[in-house]
Amino acid sequence: MASSFDKFQKRRLISSYFSVVLSVFLVLFLLGLLGLFIINSKRLSDNFKEDIVMSVFFKTEATDTIFKAFETEMKSGKYAKDFTFVSKEQAAKEHEKTLGENFTEFLGANPLYNSYDIHLKADYVTTAGFSSLESEIRKNPMVADVVYDKQLIILVNDNVKKISLWVLIISGIFTLISILLINSSLRLSIYANRFIIKTMQMVGATKAFIRKPFLTRSVILGTIGSGLAIIALICVLIYIATNYPALDIFRDQLLTILVLFGVLVLGVVITLAGTYFATQRFLNLRTDDLY
């Protein structure tokens, strides 16, 4: 009978340990993902901003000399991240693919212009930045037109600000929830040992002596849970780097390492603090209150 009860107690203890490790792992994994998103959010928003194109169309009489001078101006200027020359023949082929028919044969000539597709640096992807560059480009008498999506620029910048604000709010809320969840799991784990705690106290053991094994165990469980979270986060990073190389997810290696190290420290600190306060609560309880 005693053996059966001991097995039951052992299974319950293992189950409580597993629940602590699982809660630490899940919470810190999600918190780590959030941290990695935050440190990469600027680059992600910059990549999105830099995909917006400004098309500069040149008049038919523009020569190679004009084009080379324009390229030199863009390279030496502060606005352009990169630019691509699109000949009118190349533009005609793209239009033919889109329309599904050869419109140049129908018209008898190619009405399109030679042009440049310019991607601006992220810092200048604003209404003011595009307008300033447009003003400079239009001073060139060989420029026929400058085209870009003004509404998209406003929309992108507004959404980036809103997303950044919500990410900060969600980070704060999620951090609070994570601490409460881990603390709850720890309290349940220690609750199963409340009689042992009180028995040790009754035979004269000091509070520090009673707390020590629980604190040691919490550090081990916290390290295991956060270690599993770090391994899972590294797997996610490798997956993103392999399948989405354009994001260059490992560019900020120091910040990435700091996030992973922060996950480890947070796992240990939260479990340690949670265990301390949970054991303190049961140490201060009267024997009658244990039931």
Structural overview:
This protein is an alpha+beta fold and 291 residues long. The protein has two domains: 2-47 and 156-290, no CATH class; 53-148, Alpha-Beta Plaits (2-Layer Sandwich). 72% of the residues lie in helices and 8% in strands. It has nine helices and four strands, in the order αβαβααβαβαααα. Strands 2-3-1-4 form a four-stranded antiparallel beta sheet. The longest helix has 48 residues, at 2-49. The chain is rod-shaped, with a radius of gyration of 31 Å. The two termini are 23 Å apart. The model has no long low-confidence stretch (mean pLDDT 80).
Task: List the SSEs and their pairings.
Elements: H1 2-49, E1 53-58, H2 64-76, E2 80-86, H3 88-99, H4 103-107, E3 115-120, H5 127-138, E4 143-147, H6 150-191, H7 194-202, H8 207-243, H9 253-283
Antiparallel strand pairs: 1-3, 1-4, 2-3
Helix pairs in contact: 1-6, 1-8, 1-9, 6-9, 8-9
